[in-house]
């Protein structure tokens, strides 16, 4: 007697993780990756600190015939030019980094950055070549800004892709620790030269010294960066592209269309990231780039003391950044970012009230209150933001989101705050501005995808030890942090009957091949992968409505 046929359909599910899928971090390579990226960030902010504190000194060198106000405005405008060029650099190097790899692009940006900073120290003065000196200064700063646009986005992407999932916040936070230490180093060097050489010698030749020092420092940094290897996540993405898995092909379509394709595909994530970056960098640039001016112009400190007061605060804050990075690995990125936003809202008025008292100790206390939220903000940007985007488009999306936000909001912070004070004649306006930007930032954090202790989107899990890899594989079905559907894994066919009974089909089953052709699933890639690994693929997880379904009658056989 022949049994009636059951109506069945073929669905495709990602195969289960195997031990060799999980990336066990190569610790020496990780240390080289962190060292090679931190030095680049340190150099970038070293230049920001040096140039910002030399503005009054360099004015007479490049525009000796102009009055003091015009000189200052020209140098401030030149400083702003770096932020104008950053978005273009972020778009270009982000797109290139997703195409040819993070390591090669990061080496390129660092070489450009180091060469342009060194070139500043060699620039002839107005006395030698006239107005061309000022034109060359602007041109070099534009090149510097262009290269910087690819630096932070690439460095955060690179370290995030190297780090183990459970320690990503801690390890990525070293990038921003290096940034603020570099700024403090630049400020300290300029202050030391001003105190020892005097204004006449500084104007004659002393201003060149910090930029020339960037030459040998840059050579060392480039040597470190050339020793690092491509990130495991990017390598896995390339292998997945070669296997032509469905999800990575879709991601590649967005990346292949360039920056516009990335914006269309991930505009929500980019918008949220931009608002968070804007809130964080408004406070950060208020502390680093505006505070010396505020202390000098509004509070009566001389320029050297205005600079010196910020240095110990920056150093202390920098050393605390890894602690808040580690905290985010424990309680999550969003809670720590919320601490930064809420503490900005709560502490801004007391901070500027303390600074307004006018003595050294209350000023240091006020600066510390401004630095407190910065510590929670910046320590988590490097780990939270790259985790909002898939591997195939991560560098490009980061380059767009971060650099446009910094150019529009971070670089303009000193100008906006100063304009608010001048128009209102109220020295508390900086506090109100920081409170407003952080209120908007706090709302944006709600929409940020939590990423602590989770694999990066489009990447396989990354762990520190082989024992952790075995645990991840054993617990993959129960662990809510493991989302196999968004990992670069090949797919296997499963026949599901109306009564819910499921059976994994052989890869060469006629119904599986026909359904795969309709759904656009490359079962040949799955077969080749199985042949290379020597392990048959096993379908993962329960069937979900999120899995692509193709209706297909499958014979149940006869007896």
Structure notes:
The structure is a single chain. This protein is mainly alpha-helical and 559 residues long. Helix content is 72%, strand content 4%. It is built from 20 helices and six strands. The chain has helices at 27-53, 55-62, 68-100, 102-122, 126-129, 132-162, 168-206, 208-226, 232-243, 246-256, 258-297, 303-331, 333-357, 360-384, 394-410, 413-424, 429-445, 466-474, 510-519, 523-533; strands spanning 8-14, 23-24, 462-463, 491-497, 502-504, 549-551. A four-stranded antiparallel beta sheet has the order 5-4-1-6, covered by helices on one side. Strands 2-3 form a two-stranded parallel sheet. Strand 4 and strand 5 (502-504) form a beta hairpin. Helix 10 (246-256) crosses helix 11 (258-297) and helix 11 packs across helix 16. The longest helix is centred in the middle third of the chain and has 40 residues, at 258-297. The radius of gyration is 27 Å and the shape is elongated. Residues 1-5, 241-252 and 544-559 have low confidence and may be disordered.
Task: Give a quick rundown of the structure.
The protein is mainly α.
The residue fraction in helices comes out at over 70%
Ends distance: 6 Å
If you compute it from the alpha carbons, what radius of gyration comes out, rounded to the nearest whole angstrom? Answer: 27 Å
Largest sheet: 4 strands, antiparallel
Number of distinct helices:
20
Strand segment count: 6
- In round numbers, the mean pLDDT is 82
Listing every helix as H and every strand as E from the N terminus to the C terminus, the arrangement reads EEHHHHHHHHHHHHHHHHHEHEEHHE
Class inferred from helices and paired strands: mainly alpha
Q: What strand order characterises the main sheet? A: 5-4-1-6
**Unreliable stretches:** 1-5, 241-252, 544-559
The proportion of residues in beta strands is: under 5%
Shape: elongated
């Amino acid at each position: 007697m022949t049994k009636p046929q059951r109506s069945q359909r073929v669905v495709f599910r990602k195969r289960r993780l195997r031990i060799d899928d999980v990336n066990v971090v190569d610790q020496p390579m990780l240390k080289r990756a962190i060292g090679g990226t931190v030095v680049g960030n340190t150099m970038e902010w070293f230049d920001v600190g040096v140039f910002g504190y030399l503005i009054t000194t360099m004015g007479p060198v490049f525009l000796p015939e102009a009055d003091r106000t015009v000189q200052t405005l020209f140098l401030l405008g030149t400083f702003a030019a770096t932020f104008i060029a950053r978005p273009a650099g972020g778009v270009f190097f982000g797109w290139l980094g997703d195409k040819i790899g993070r390591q090669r692009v990061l080496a390129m940006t660092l070489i450009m950055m180091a060469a342009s900073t060194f070139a500043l120290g060699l620039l002839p003065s107005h006395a030698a070549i006239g107005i061309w000196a000022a034109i060359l200064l602007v041109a070099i700063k534009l090149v510097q800004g262009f290269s910087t646009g690819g630096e932070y986005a690439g460095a955060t992407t690179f370290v995030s892709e190297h780090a183990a999932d459970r320690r990503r916040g801690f390890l990525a936070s070293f990038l921003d620790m290096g940034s603020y230490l570099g700024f403090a180093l630049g400020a300290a060097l300029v202050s030391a030269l001003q105190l020892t050489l005097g204004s006449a010698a500084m104007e004659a030749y002393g201003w060149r010294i910090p930029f020339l020092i960037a030459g040998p420092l840059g050579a060392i940094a480039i040597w470190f960066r050339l020793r690092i290897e491509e990130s495991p996540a990017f390598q896995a993405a390339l292998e997945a592209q070669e296997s032509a898995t469905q999800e990575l092909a879709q991601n590649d379509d967005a990346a292949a269309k360039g920056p516009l394709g990335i914006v269309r595909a991930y505009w929500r994530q980019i918008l949220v990231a931009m608002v968070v970056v804007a809130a964080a960098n408004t406070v950060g640039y208020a502390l680093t780039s505006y505070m010396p001016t505020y202390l000098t112009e509004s509070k009566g400190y001389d320029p050297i003391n205005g600079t010196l007061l910020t240095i110990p605060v920056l150093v202390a804050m920098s050393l605390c950044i890894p602690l808040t990075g580690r905290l985010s690995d424990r309680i999550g990125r969003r809670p720590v970012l919320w601490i930064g936003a809420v503490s900005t809202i709560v502490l801004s008025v007391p901070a500027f009230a303390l600074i307004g008292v006018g003595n050294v100790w209350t000023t240091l206390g006020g600066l510390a209150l401004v630095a407190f939220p910065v510590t929670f903000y910046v320590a988590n940007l490097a780990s939270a933001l790259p985790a909002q985007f898939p591997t195939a488009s991560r560098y490009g999306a980061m380059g767009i989101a971060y650099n446009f936000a910094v150019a529009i909001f971070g670089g303009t912070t000193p100008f906006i705050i100063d304009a608010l004070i001048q128009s209102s004649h109220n020295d508390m306006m900086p506090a109100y501005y920081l409170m407003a930007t952080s209120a908007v930032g706090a709302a944006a954090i709600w929409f940020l995808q939590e990423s602590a202790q989770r694999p990066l989107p489009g990447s396989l899990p990354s762990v520190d030890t082989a024992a952790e890899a075995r645990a991840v594989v054993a617990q993959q079905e129960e662990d809510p942090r493991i989302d196999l559907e968004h990992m670069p894994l090949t797919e296997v066919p499963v026949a599901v009957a109306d009564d819910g009974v499921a059976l994994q089909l052989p890869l060469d089953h006629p119904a599986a091949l026909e359904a795969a052709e309709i759904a656009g699933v490359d079962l040949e890639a799955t077969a080749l992968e199985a042949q290379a690994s020597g392990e048959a693929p096993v379908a993962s997880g329960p069937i979900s409505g999120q899995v692509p379904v193709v209706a297909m009658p499958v014979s149940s056989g006869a007896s």
